[in-house]
Design brief:
The complex is a heterotrimer of chains A (910), B (161) and C (289). Chain B is α+β, with helices and mostly antiparallel strands and 161 residues long. Chain B has helices spanning 25-32, 89-96, 106-116, 125-131, 143-156, and strands at 3-10, 13-20, 51-54, 57-60, 73-75. Chain B has 2 domains: 3-79, Beta-grasp domain (Ubiquitin-like (UB roll)), CATH 3.10.20.30; 89-152, DNA polymerase, domain 1, CATH 1.10.150.120. Classes of the chains: A alpha+beta (910), B alpha+beta (161), C alpha+beta (289).
Chain lengths: 910, 161, 289
């Protein structure tokens, strides 16, 4: 696809009023709790009050007696349904997860029983009367507990749910770090966050006949939900229709159904009446999957001039007990140094189980990369004695340096982080601020300036099964109005508006004449919806191209009808005009009427009607760049932080609707403010969540969020339309910008440990030089790569046990399955040994590749060099036992994968 | 468990129902009277999404029992627009200033602003912003709400913003 | 989160309310403004058998002059307190404190009596009552008694109210015209639980402090009368006051908690500082070097 620059046109680039707003402002939105169906019953759950233990008994007899109760179900009742709680990538979970707890509970709030009743009130009455006996055990709560404590899940080898990177720091990296002129170590401890959309989760499930299922569900893509449900519940023949007209925010929580929703759907399938479950806020805060509980240690080696030479990162995140997607957050490491010149980077990254509610996505799941990097750079600037701007200028990738590739081999072609920074610096008078800061300090007032730059991966498509392109279906009705069906979905994104703008712009009609439909899986085509800052980029491109195709069709037909050269025809404001012949103008409606109703007048080969569709597959990745700055004042009296000013210099390419763009950035920045100053989901030692209401889980209110200033850049991307994604950026760049400002304000007192949230008590403690917050520093449990020993291997996965020696019988053919993070890979292996020498080949649908290696007893090792997805050497280490093959494959930075194999037996010939 | 007959005027129309005492005004408005524009964001009186106008005052409908609204006049977002469909000035200001994204907190915000404006009330921008402290929005960062408030305060003061 | 079932009654007189409370034998809860009780009901943290709604009792409303003070009916809405001219004139610190209670929307329903009767440790109204020397009239079928606010609070959300008793009047003694008001709340955002706060009044007569009523909120299980500080201030001339020394005394009476929002040490540290500063600002005196 070539770059396609859209100038501020008729509709693209304008702050048009949103099409969604009139109904939403009038309270006429259709959210899932607004759905009421004949015969509908209501669901409530009985939930585990303990974080870990066995369920000894469940007694429902008293609860069943409550008037208005229809049924009470436990996992025993649901067990007959084979459910595979697949993740966003459609891969099975590391360990089986059941919709309701079966036998064991592993987090406080885990749903144990489901009540169906006439009303939610009655369902809750009954739920409170269910008697459940538990044998309580001591829970594993924090990452530190997970490292050193007992297994969360007995079936797993360790509490590591996923690991990538290298356990050992390479000699080269070690030498670079140790020998550096300056070595800076930054640690970040990040609290757990609840995505907390204003609309909680919820579903209405209706079985219409034996092979039809309708779900009204608050989600981030009806198509994603339909696909997920079909696969997870094993319903290949069932027509699943998912409807979600209005959704009150998703932020990653609502990518696909989870335990409660699945339980309700299964209950509806078996019970035969529509069932509604609406999560209440208490449930949402304690039992809906959460995010962001992480810690990281980053070390950066600088030369004497402040240029970066090498870096190492050790990252851990708390996946909880039942993560929606097992995640060691490789994305943190992929993008950590994308915008900067970093020659060598090594890392170890791990996700840990714990007896807490599981992990789900949250706006910019890899946000730690910007937080730790940008705060580390400021720390380095202070340590080395360089201006924080300078240290960035010396290390950022500029346009002149591109095209290049990052140290993780990500192609870097059109990022402008360095240029956004300069734009920011030109806009904001830093020297004047420094004077003001100096003067304020003398009065005991602590002003601070924070700056951060970043790039954000957006519009990702093509490398993951669910991250597809987007489909636009556009038609001109016989009435001349324009109708479009998109694969997009809005939970506030305003896609009906932005797509209408794209279509109106390229078609040549008024914005008011375009209606966009989305939010129903029976129309449009597959897309994962709002996930990864992608819809504006990809669907925008699809809408533009489909509209252009349709416009061309109109021109072909009009040219034929008017007997005029097609090149002279243009469409404007819903009229078809001929250049230089104003008497020949026609309404779009008149052309449409012919297209649909008068086939004899159509040109030969012309498909009747005026309909066009285009599924856009964009380039694999579109990077958005940005720089932010903010000014804070930290009170020496109370430790409160007041944000005085905030400037966002974002380069998101073409802006379809600047008001929508700014809305997305502002929303992310507000969440960043909440993350840094206010929000915290804690657990006590028993695994009880301690912030179960909004009195304790503090969301940013209007007084917390300043008026944001926007300094846009708009370097068009390589996509159709030139858009770049913005959905997650604010939540990624916001935290380091604010933390840097606070650190700058208090730099005269020392470094501010980055342990979020930065509460007034913590900040006051920095100012007064003593512990006021009441607990010792929450030091990350992981140690820096250099200077302190790494975590012992005992907490970490060990190799498979070596079985007793048997003669090596590797020779022959094997059917093998490799469990990679991208999914199970099947292949055939052919082995031939001669003494200790091994040779053979592996074959898969992609092709065949030969190898040589070694045989020692029943142990077989060999290397395989691959180029996709990256250039890495796969190191196979397998053990033969009879007709079974087991072992591990080291996949470079992607860690280790398990391999299982079975000997292929020749068919016995008669 | 007592049941009560309750009659109130909602958006200008009389509604009668028979409800358990424990039914909140919010639930009554949504389930009995069909005004699903009243949203439940928390049911513990913090988020403000359920805000309606009762006898002229903005109140959290999740913190009132339906029986307590007996004989009262209630207004929800559905009842604000003019009979010909023209948006209420608050709705118009929020539309013009892009003050919403997902729309879930929106009806509550609209009702607080509607309660404080109009009818010669002349609130200052500060007063309107202070009343906004009772509303949580997860989407917008309150930027458009601030602009809408400025517009409304300016309009109330008789000037153009 | 829907409440457990309950019976509901809305008496029209105090007598009716009291006899209902008596009959319920401890299974009744009083519903005033509902801004705190309704969340508890919704969360099922409170499950009364019978809810006694006192919103219809006319006798419980209104602000009136009594001998030596002002009587405020407990069902006076918080927004009505804010708008009352007599209170603005005679008890300005009460009005100032009320402007910090909750949000505009909750003040439209919430009542001053409800806040007084709840006894939330971080609440402004109980502390203001203690500081200003208010007395709380309490009635049951067994009779009427008056409890000084200082003796009303026993612990977090715990007052000396018996299960069959109803708060029927709040009487605030007069403070002379021109008295000094003291109010400072430390809260991250308007309407949040206060992390800590200070409220009260001082009278200066011929250069000396003749009367002092000061109380903390958010600094212990109940509102805390800053007795030691009051004592230190009484009889002093303005020039004699060392705000830090008084603040030190004031803190010594407190017993702040560690909780999700702030540590005890934070409360002590900031409490002492804001006490000293608020005192200086109220009295318009300088810091002693």
């Amino acid at each position: 696809m070539t770059a396609h620059e859209i100038k501020a046109g008729r509709h693209i680039g304008r702050r048009l009023q949103r099409k969604e707003d009139p109904r939403l402002l009038s309270g006429r939105g259709q959210f899932v709790d607004d759905i009421s169906l004949p015969g509908m019953l209501h669901v409530a759950f009985a939930r585990s009050p303990i974080a870990r233990g066995n369920i000894l008994s469940i007694r429902t007899d008293v609860a069943r007696e409550v008037d208005g109760v229809h049924a009470i179900l436990t996992q025993q009742d649901l067990a007959r349904f084979k459910v595979d709680m697949i993740n966003f990538y459609l891969l099975p979970p590391e360990l089986p997860i059941t919709p309701l707890a079966g036998g064991r509970v592993c987090y406080v709030g885990e749903p144990v029983a489901l009540v169906i009743a006439d009303s939610r009130h009655i369902a809750e009455d009954a739920a409170s009367l269910i008697e459940i006996e538990y044998a309580e055990e001591d829970p594993v709560v924090s990452i530190a507990d997970a490292r050193h404590g007992p297994l969360v899940h007995a079936e797993s080898e360790s509490n590591i749910v996923q690991q990538m990177g290298e356990e050992e720091v390479s000699e080269e990296l070690d030498a670079l770090l140790k020998g550096a002129a300056h070595l800076v170590t930054q640690k970040v401890v990040h609290q757990r966050i609840s995505q907390s959309p204003m609309e909680t989760r919820g579903v209405v499930a209706v079985r219409d006949g034996t092979e039809e299922l309708t779900l009204y569900i608050t989600c981030q893509s009806p198509h994603m939900v339909a696909r997920w449900t079909s696969l997870a519940l094993g319903l290949p023949q069932t027509a699943i229709r998912v409807i979600a007209k209005d959704v009150g925010g998703g932020f990653g929580l609502k990518n696909h159904p989870w335990k409660e929703e699945v339980a309700v759907i299964l209950a509806a399938l078996s019970f035969g009446r529509p069932l509604k479950w609406i999560e209440d806020r208490y449930e949402n805060l304690i039992a809906a999957n959460q995010a962001r509980e992480q810690e990281m240690v980053l070390q950066i080696a600088f030369d004497g001039d402040g240029k970066m030479l090498a870096s190492h990162g050790d990252y851990s995140c708390n996946n909880g007990a039942c993560p929606q997607v097992a995640d060691c957050n490789i994305a943190v490491h992929m993008f950590l140094w994308a915008a900067y010149k970093m020659p060598v980077y090594g890392f170890l990254t791990r996700g840990w189980y714990s007896n807490t509610v599981g992990l789900a996505a949250y706006r910019g799941p890899w946000a730690m990369e910007s937080l730790i990097r940008e705060t580390a750079l400021d720390k380095a600037a202070r340590q080395i004695g360089i201006d924080p701007l300078e240290i960035r200028r010396r290390n950022l990738v500029t346009l002149r340096d591109q095209p290049t590739a990052s140290c993780m081999n990500i192609p870097i072609e059109d990022i402008t982080a360095a240029e956004c920074l300069e734009k920011l610096v030109a806009y904001f008078d830093i020297p004047a601020f420094r004077k003001e800061q100096e003067a304020a300090r003398k009065e005991g007032r602590y002003l601070g300036l924070g700056i951060a730059t970043y790039v954000e991966p957006t519009g990702s498509a093509g490398s993951i099964a669910t991250m597809t392109g987007e489909l636009a279906q556009v038609r001109i009705e016989p009435t001349g109005m324009v109708t479009a069906t998109m694969s997009t979905h809005s939970q506030g994104h305003g896609t009906a508006t932005t797509m209408a703008q794209c279509i109106a712009d390229r078609l040549g009609v008024a914005y008011e004449e375009v209606t966009v439909y989305e939010g129903d899986s029976s129309r449009g085509g597959f897309s994962p919806g709002a996930a990864g800052s992608r819809q504006g980029v990809i669907a925008g491109g699809a809408a533009i191209r489909a509209a252009e195709m349709l416009a061309d069709k109109v021109k072909v037909l009009a040219a034929h009808l008017l007997q005029i050269n097609k090149e002279l025809i243009f469409i404007e404001e819903g009229m078809v005009h001929v250049t230089g012949a104003s008497d020949k103008s026609r309404t779009l409606r008149s052309i449409a009427e012919v297209a649909y109703g008068e086939p004899s007048r159509l040109p030969p080969g012309f498909e009747p009607g005026l309909e066009a569709q285009f599924r856009y597959q964009p380039p694999p990745l579109t990077l958005t760049s940005g720089a932010n700055a903010c000014v804070v004042e930290v009170s020496g009296e109370t430790g409160f932080v007041k944000i005085r000013r905030w400037i966002s210099a974002e380069d998101c390419g073409t802006q379809i609707n600047p008001a929508v763009v700014e809305g997305q950035v502002a929303g992310g920045l507000a969440q960043a403010i909440g993350t840094v100053l206010l929000e915290e989901m804690c657990f006590d030692a028993r695994g009880n969540p301690t912030a179960a209401t909004y009195k304790d889980y503090l969301l940013p209110s209007i007084s917390d969020v300043p008026v944001f200033e926007f300094v846009h850049a708009d370097t068009p991307s390589q996509t159709i339309g030139g858009m770049r994604g913005v959905g997650e950026g604010g939540a990624i760049i916001g935290p380091p910008t604010l933390v840097n400002a606070i650190s700058d304000a208090l730099s005269i007192f020392g470094e501010v440990p980055v342990e979020l949230p930065l509460t007034p008590a913590k900040l006051l403690g920095i100012i007064e030089g003593r512990d006021i917050a009441g607990h010792a520093h929450a030091e990350p449990d992981s140690k820096p790569a250099v200077g302190e020993p790494l975590v012992e291997a005992s907490a970490v996965e060990t190799l498979a046990e070596t079985p007793p020696e048997v003669p090596a019988l590797i020779d022959g053919d094997w059917k093998m399955v490799l469990s990679t993070p991208m999914g199970p890979q099947e292949m055939k292996g052919h082995f031939e040994s001669e003494g200790q020498s091994l040779s053979g080949y592996l074959s898969s649908p992609e092709g065949e590749q030969g190898f040589t290696g070694t045989v020692e007893g029943n142990r077989v090792t060999f290397d395989l060099k691959v180029v996709k997805p990256l250039k890495i050497t796969l190191k196979y280490d397998l053990t033969v036992e009879g007709d079974k093959l087991t072992g591990k494959v080291k996949m470079g930075i992607f860690g280790s994968a398990k391999l299982m194999g079975e000997r292929v037996r020749e068919a016995v010939e008669a | 468990m007592s049941k009560h007959d309750v009659t109130m005027t909602i958006n200008g129309r009389r509604h009668s129902g028979s409800v358990e005492a424990r039914i909140s005004l919010a639930d009554f408005l949504r389930d009995e009277a069909g005004y699903t524009g009243v949203h439940l964001g928390c049911e513990h009186g913090v988020c403000g999404a359920c805000t309606v106008i009762v006898d002229g005052n903005a109140v959290r409908s999740c913190l009132m029992l339906a029986v307590q609204a007996e004989g009262s006049g209630v207004k929800t977002a559905e009842g604000l627009a003019a009979p010909d469909g023209a948006l209420h000035p608050v709705q118009q200001a929020m539309l013009d200033e892009h003050a919403l994204q997902c729309g879930f907190c929106t009806p509550g915000v609209v009702m607080t602003l509607a309660a404080l404006t109009g009818d010669e009330k002349k609130p200052t921008e500060e007063q309107l912003l202070a009343a906004m402290s009772g509303h949580l929005c997860r989407c917008t960062g309150y930027q458009g709400i601030r602009r809408a408030v400025r517009r409304l305060a300016g309009a109330e003061a008789g000037g153009n913003s | 989160m829907k409440p457990a079932p309950f019976d509901y009654i809305a008496p029209r007189t105090i007598a009716e309310a009291c006899s209902t409370l008596a009959e319920a034998g401890g299974g009744a809860t009083v519903l005033a403004g509902g801004q705190t009780l309704m969340p508890l009901l919704n969360l099922r943290m409170s499950q009364p058998f019978i809810l006694v709604d006192i919103n219809k009792i006319a006798e419980l409303k209104g602000v009136s002059r009594v001998a030596g003070g002002i009587r405020i009916g407990p069902m006076t809405r918080q927004c009505e307190v804010l708008a009352d001219e007599a209170l603005a004139r005679d008890l300005p610190v009460l009005v100032e404190a009320m402007s910090h209670v909750g949000h505009h929307q909750t003040r439209n329903r919430g009542t001053i009596g409800g806040s007084i009767a709840l006894g939330e440790p971080a609440a402004e109204m109980p502390a203001a009552a203690v500081a200003l020397g208010a007395s709380i009239e309490v009635r049951s079928i067994r009779g009427t008694r008056t409890v000084p606010a200082e003796q009303f609070y026993a612990g977090p959300y715990l007052t000396v109210l018996e299960p069959d008793e109803l708060v029927t009047g709040l009487t605030y003694p007069d403070w002379p015209q021109g008295h000094i008001t003291v109010f400072r709340e430390v809260a991250q955002r308007p309407g949040d639980f206060a992390l800590l706060g200070l409220v009260g009044a001082l009278v200066i007569d011929r250069g000396k402090i003749t009367r002092a009523g000061l109380a903390w909120f958010g600094m212990g299980p109940t509102p805390i009368k800053a007795r030691a500080a009051e004592q230190m201030l009484r009889g002093r001339t303005l020039a004699e006051i060392d705000s830090h020394a008084v603040a030190e005394r004031a803190i010594s009476d407190t017993a702040p908690f560690d909780d999700h929002h702030a540590s005890a040490e934070y409360r002590r540290t900031v409490g002492k500082r804001i006490f000293a500063r608020t005192l200086r600002e109220a009295l318009d005196i300088r810091e002693v070097a």
